């Protein structure tokens, strides 16, 4: 790095933030990434070498301490020489097997040795160093292109130091090792295209009418039409800005596509003369992207600004507001200004690709397409499983997309003579007229052009007429195949365009040109489609076509689905369209073969009384199958057995006793697999090229077991060549001559107790090759240091397993083979059980570990708490049956909480085990943002518990110290624990130290002695038996209907009505807090037992009864109803609300009970401005009819009207707070007053 004299010291912090952010996703502590620094001025000098700092904490401290040293001279050539000669050396910590990268950051061109820059850069590159450049206020045509490894495309530039953040994102994208800790790092890409938190920020000027506003709403709805809303992967909210900003609906409001569309359609047109875009962006940052509104740490944030008018207020504040939104909310911003100039919004969008200025609202559809292409989660379909179940080989129904590209060199006459007849012949036998087959047609160049969709024509004749129109204008120079496939996935295969959920999809891709995009992107788009169950057949015409590209795109088997032709004239051969049609049953014109009788009887066992025989005249149909001597299934609900060819890839470096455990694991896996019946075949590859036996060596279970017993231990196993092993198995074991069967899936099970330490790029290449070959890879780590390698080569996150030792592998090997049907087709011999019995619960359990974190707790002591939790999960087998789910949080204080992983992320035992292992101690390793909440409040309001009412919600608190008898935080935590327990949460506490004796009775559930354990030392965590904590047996802990902190009124019967102010001054976010107050207040109400009845009325200009006291009889129903209350803003008409409460709600017809006390709680933030003179008289009349009124005011400077509403004495029945956020604490005061009232009756 270099800083010139022009730079101010305050700006130097951006340099350091850039460095800190760049390494925030790297694994420093385990040695995966090493970092050094060089400063150059007149000469270069090493600030610190690569091997100086081995922990993240020390490295970050060193960066923060970097002195500000601006220089007049700048000698970049010397700086690069110092990097090469003094930094990338063994003495400075350079490693021979680890790739090197240099990031040059400078704000000035060189003043010395300018001519030497190209030569110094070349020497670095020749040494294998990748160079990235970040120039601040520099001309991109200057010296930087000579440096960057990517030439001009590798030069990153910004006008000021504030632009370093987006440059950092671009660099991190290109260095995988800098984003291993992805949960803590925001990147504007979606390698795992799932999660997204999206905000629409909209403004409508006075020119917008209802018809135009409908186009606003259509744009919003169409943008999220393909997003996965139902599973919770994508959340969507909206913010309106005028002079002020307001949240229209938060991220966590709608969780289904239907509800979201209804919410968008229900938006009201709110035009404004003036607008402040800066205030709008501040609203998104401060009031929208918050945990309370649904913002998630592990989901990238995206903002789409849509306006038709230039900002009129706070224009100078827009750049700063935009930058704060991008930095603090880690948001990527798109901006669409209809009829505006790009300069008007240039400071708003994150980059030029995110800035749009359509001339009319009709062009918003184009804007939508461009945004969706850049934000991958917006292109996800709602079906999380992807596949429709059937394929085009199984049924004569099909939705077929024909996609073609014709190069500019194509002779026009050949199009009409050969190409058009070929495309027509593909459909000549298809049953289009009866609806069995639907067809779309798309040609593509740089972008796809959809000629017609699946639902455009329902007859063959108009389709054939459209095909005849293919001609000269369809030729193009560029062929962007990835864009074409993405367009088919996101636009054609959608319900709106005629895609049917119960009908399989197929793509016929025909091209006579080489693809101009990177093969990786092309293949990834194809893989996404194939995982969704789409069959892809490719046809290449002529010498310009790259066969490797079509192989990467087509579905297996490639010899059937990749057709290569010498030229257009070859299309005249009738066998060519026949080969294409034969791969899609619906194009053959005859019905599908009926499904064969099941090989397993309805009871789950084999059907021994019948032999299955099938015949068919159609190509590719099984002619005969017989079943005999089939072993009974392992369980009574197994699926039909699926054949598999399985190879163990084994690396072992431990003791002989552990080797026996490894052999037993493999023998146990074989024992439950039907080798005798030919369902499963096994081979073994021992690391470094030793193959004890191939797939076709043994044909019985006993032979395989004997071979495993005789397998010698590999004594030369110090190094682990994981990439080489995967390559050997794929190329030399999964081959016909070694027993590989064409119709049997291939499986590799990697078992290792050592990290390979290989280049991640090399492992990624092997993974891609296995994915392309259709090989499923499962990885099993035994005491491995870093699971990253296992994740790199496995076929998916659910295929990665980690165990604390070989005994654990032996006890839990069933986890690995659970998802391989072929390994569950034979009943194992009974043997004495050495494992903990599988837990069977009488009700589902959601378990959350809550780790108390303390600066006084050493890393080793904290690890003992983590190891206990891992051991607990290890022995809790019911996690694998989804009967128990596990999540974890940690709390360094009573007002801070970190979410470590969610219940959804702990749905499998091995996944929960590894997630627990990743938890680190506060404060040294915490880089994620904490929630500003009490841990129990967070658990009650933020944890996504299952909705089942007959279930257990358990919090297992692991404490490292007592809270202290007189600390305020202790009182807050005790009170919050009481509320959690009252809501149905069972609290179990395990802690160290005698100072916990004061806390345990107040934190743990009753009886507290049975729900708590006090340890003398942290070492005793290792001796706590998980079985001592009963989650499933004994009394089912249900939510208590009686509060344990207000015993004096627990049996009182109450008819209760809430009167809530929804006027404009409240704002929607505060109205949500008001609703939270209602739910918090009702935690301790006996609604299910019938003691308490509840109704709610809200008011602004008019009043609205949301529900009466006899509408709902359970607390769950009341909570759901409160959540659904909409915000209806307007003026403040308290008088009519009080009148409606008295005359329409406290009536026998609507649930009022004779002899039961009537209570009303009024919550307002302002004085009445409609019917103000009637407000107090209406309150007096209600009190005169026996209704006791509590009045709560928020932010009021004048409380006279509030005093007039409340029952007497005023000081006991009127409450005032300054902020809506204080309502939560106020509920206890109101409840206390209510209990006191009943005590005096």
In words, what does this structure look like?
The chain is α/β, with parallel strands linked by helices and 1241 residues long. Helix content is 31%, strand content 19%. The protein has 37 helices and 36 strands. The strands form 7 sheets. Strands 12, 13, 14, 15, 16, 17 and 18 form a 7-stranded mixed β-sheet that branches. It is globular. The N and C termini lie far apart (77 Å). 44% of the residues are buried. About 8% of the residues have low confidence.
Features:
1241 residues, alpha/beta, six-stranded mixed β-sheet, 37 helices, globular
How much helix, percentage-wise, in residues? 25-40%
> What is the radius of gyration?
34 Å
Which stretches are low in confidence, meaning pLDDT under 50 for 5 or more residues running?
A: 182-192, 381-387, 590-641, 830-839, 1033-1048
How many strands, which pairing sense, and closed or not: the largest β-sheet? 7 strands, mixed
Mean pLDDT: 80
**CA(first)-CA(last) distance:** 77 Å
Subcellular location: Secreted
Pfam family, one: VWA
Domain VWFA: 1-171, 197-375, 399-580, 645-820, 846-1029, 1055-1230
Keywords: Collagen, Glycoprotein, Repeat, Secreted, Signal
In short:
The protein has 1241 residues and is α/β, with parallel strands linked by helices. It has 37 helices and 36 strands.
